Amino acid sequence: MTDSSKDKIGKGGYGTVYKGRLPDGLLVASLFLDSVMRGKRALIYEFMPNGSLDNFIHNGSGMANCRLEWKTLSEIAVCIARGLE
Q1: Mean pLDDT over each residue of the chain, to the nearest integer
Q2: Residue 29's CB: how many other CB atoms inside 10 A?
Q3: Distance between CA 8 and CA 58 in Å, rounded?
Q4: Is there a contact between 57 and 67 (Cβ–Cβ < 8 Å)?
Q5: Which UniProt keywords apply (predicted)?
Q6: Do 41 and 56 reside in the same domain of the chain?
Q7: How far apart are alpha carbons 38 and 83 in whole angstroms?
Q8: Confidence band (pLDDT; 50, 70, 90) for 24?
């Protein structure tokens, strides 16, 4: 999915994020989790070109008139938690 460090788009508290492409052509962001105890794990998301969700939520770097409601934020958190199970 990724072939070099040039595909690296970020690093956070949970791991490194790379931009990649699935065989069907879909652009994705792959978060490879830094977890020694649980083995190799990754979360694969559709690539969103406007930056990270973290920046959108906490820094207001999203579009000026586009705000996420708490209901949407909680749904995102639940989906992420299910993916980590």
Answers
A1: 79
A2: 19
A3: 22
A4: no
A5: Glycoprotein, Kinase, Membrane, Serine/threonine-protein kinase, Signal, Transferase, Transmembrane, Transmembrane helix
A6: no
A7: 14
A8: very high
Number of structural domains found in the chain: 2
pLDDT at 41 over 90: no
Together in a domain, 84 and 54 = yes
Average pLDDT value for residue range 12-24: 90
Q: Are strands 8-11 and 15-21 parallel, antiparallel or unpaired?
A: antiparallel
Query: What is the per-residue pLDDT across 2-17, written as a single tens digit (0 to 9) for each?
Result: 555 679 998 888 889 9
In this structure, the answer to whether residues 12 and 43 fall within a common structural domain is: yes
CATH number at residue 42: 3.30.200.20
- What b/e sequence results for 68-82 when a residue is b if at least 16 CB atoms lie within 10 Å of its CB, and e otherwise? eeeeeeeeeeeeeee
Cα 29 off chain centre by: 6
Domain that holds residue 22: 1-49
Amino acid 71 reads K
